[in-house]
Design brief:
Helices cover about 25% and strands about 15% of the residues. By secondary structure, the protein is an alpha/beta fold.
Length: about 250
Amino acid sequence: MVAKRGPECYIWGMDKIILHIPHSAPCTDFSRWSNQESVRNEHDKWTDWHTDAIFKCTDRSLEPRVATIVFPLSRYDLDVERYLGDPMEQCGQGAIYTRTKDGRSERTVEPGLAVPLTAMYANHWTTVSVACQGNGLLIDCHSFPTDHSAPNSAGGDFDVCIGYNNDGTRPGDGVIETLSRHFRDAGYSVGINEPFSNSFAPVPDFPSVMVELRKGIYMDESTRELLSGAYKVNQLLNRIYADLLG
């Protein structure tokens, strides 16, 4: 049964899921940054390491209904989740970063680089927008460092953050509850719109939900090597996909 969309509705038996993975690729060239050590440290912390593998659909029976869109460049090359005219442009963190979060390193972006990056940005948005048609759900796939996990009610760290927008792209309550239940039943603590909020939504009224995983539940944050828990998280996500697709 498929119910109509809306903030108080369930969405069962949707036709497809789009896995949007924008920040898993590492940067390979820091030569345009003024302080390479500073930007490398920030890059290593905020790249969504291994999310392309962790969120991967490995269930062959689901593959025809699960589309995966992985952006091939680092967010420190081009951040496709920023909007045109994004307020973050004021601090050099728009689609094309010109400054690190802490302001210690600046990036020189010549027109010869900006033009092809802008074209890649437009092509990526077109690809995602075409995929986000019909009855489906976009899952915005991310990770976050443990030291940016807000304390939960038990005093520990959130393991998972589920985020959404309070507009026409808000998924049905059933989507949010299904995600939360699966993670909590598996022993993970879940924050709803905390420590991060909102979700990438390039198409008005097409449901979108962000899933952010604390890096420490699947990788060693100092070496970036996958832990045994990585397989557990991947299998859990595949069960979630199956449940949502009905």
